[in-house]
Amino acid sequence: MKxxxxxxxxxxxxxxxxxxxxxxxxxxxxxxxxERMNSLNSMNGDxxxxxxxxxxxxxxxVDKFSYATxxxxxxxxxxxxxxxxxYFESYSFNNNETKLILGVDTEPIYxxxxxxxxxxxxxxxxxxxxxxxxxxxxxxxxxxxxxxxxAKDNNLFIKNLETNEVIQITNDGLKNNxxxxxxxxxxxxxxxxxxxFEWSNDSSTIAFLRFDESEVPTYSMDIxxxxxYPTQQVFKYPKAGxxxxxxxxxxxxxxxxxxxxxxxxxxxxxxxxxxxxxxxILCATTLNRHQNNLNLYxxxxxxxxAKIVLNETDKAYVDIQDNLTFLEDNSFIWTSENDGFNHIxxxxxQGNLKNQITKGNWEVTKFYGVNEKTKTIYYQSVEDxxxxxxxxxxxxxxKNKKRLTNASGTNSASFSKxxxxxxxxxxxxxxxxxxxxxxxxxKLLKEVLxxxxxxxxxxxxxxxxxxxxxxxxxxxxxxxxxxxxxxFDANKEYPLxxxxxxxxxxxxxxxxxxxxxxxxxxxxxxEGYIIVCVDGRGTGLKGAEFKKVxxxxxxxxxxxxQIESAKELGKRSYINQNEIGIWGWSYGGxxxxxxxxxxxxxxxxxxxxxxxxxxxxxDSIYTERYMQTPQENPSGYDENSxxxxxxxxxxxxxxxxxxxDDNVHVQNTMRFSNALIEANKPFDHAVYPDRTHGIYRGKNxxxxxxxxxxxxxxxxxxxxxxxxELLKQ
Length: 729
Hints:
The protein is α+β, with helices and mostly antiparallel strands. The protein has 13 helices and 43 strands.
């Protein structure tokens, strides 16, 4: 019996030894890429379209599928049939789905914006028409499909598709001065949209925003490039407390070719414009500079009058969302944290509250829409626990709530336009994405796509199981996850490496499938590290009070929570409290820097990638939402800035930035480097030439970065035993 047991142990050890350790090269060469459905576009009726690339012909197609069968019904357009367009990169339909706008030669500008060459394709005649010979932005069909509006050179244009006449709506557009119909840098980044013009439902009027950024301070970056002399990227960037663009709302009457400016009272921002179901009424959202006083205006296109239909205030700030939905009678759906949690509200056409549709100590995380025929709302929430996402339906009156997805984890739905079907994407920490077709009542009809092949492939690797738990500290109880080495021995001590982001309303601890960093953490776990992630105060989906406690004090409570979490974890017998490190990117880099400085008796090392080192350097909209201005709140800015605590550095520190970062400027890293130099503190430093905030463009960029960080961890955290030596043990 003893021999059999020894033999079994030997076989088990051999099987374990034969499993591979994840290599960094595999993470970045696509070895663990998941199978995903192309982004589908729901059509009228029970159909959807997908853009596909035909490897055999080298052409691009837009294919139409049936929700009921998931079978392809037809190919709407194939670029091999087009003389002037061998491929296309994007497509969009007109209202009645008889025409398409096809885009090619896309040239990125910032995170969301781009330029391109665009064509109108008529499905019936199979004809192709160039919209403009130059690269343009955001071409959009009029609802009657007779015209296309677009932006070029900071001005707005309309092309009549029947006569080919082009009308120039604005003439004062000028780079770094006046922008018409397209957002400036800070609106695009922080309010999350690019196209700042909208057609009325009857195609008679275009509403647009005009940005006068003439007095906004300019930021410039040297671009090293490949030429003998570098060039400069120069753009308007309002830092905290500085002048913003003056943004105004205008209405252009297509028939009269006249423009009127709309008076919206006192405001700083217009973060949203949207036409209601009354073709004569536009809804405009305004915010004050503190972003704690929001107004919804109904603007009458006939007489240019405006009236407030909803006002929302908050002692901290009001978040901007895209859930405003108008019903046929112009009553509307709105989401708000009014009762302390994000919920769905129903208002009549005058802005009077009819009822609060969802209630409870949990958050609505997505609003999918409303089926007016059945008076049913569809939404995603964290009712199944704040680390999970589940799909629900509920009646407009707040009754008959129904759970539409059963599995606990992350569920995300893509509904048909008529809400008769939805395709659900499910994953959890142990299950890569599975796509399933359901009817509107949640009934499972068919599996569409799975990642069983990836799951089988991963069986050949040493993988630690992600353990979710609640970490109780002196400052609160926090969601957390942990990865232990695959050969974990509770009688040994291991170094601890913490990861976090910690920004307002964010979530890093979620029951969902791996991102690239998760494979990196698996690599580190196989090298003998325990990896832990903790979402402290200020993070999202646990109510407004938990999220907004950091108001006016970014980097105070979040840092305390990470330090206290590290202390608490260090009490565990299997964690070496003298070998604790932390890292983060962007806001997470701001955090890891502060943790190493203010927690210099707890953290032995830290890595900060693209960190904010003073909120005085960051943009106005994001920073002031949480901090007010530096003039109003100087202590909030300075008492939590790493710049002012460089002399506290004791541990090992790696500071990384891309020199072409238009978001968190490399100025942050340069100024902090100077502070560390003046304090005579040694540190490691890496600047990636011309790379933006994501530090990913260019051959081997990500691999180089993660090789560097991995080496830094191994050199400065824990006395590591090699994988071969661990196998011998």
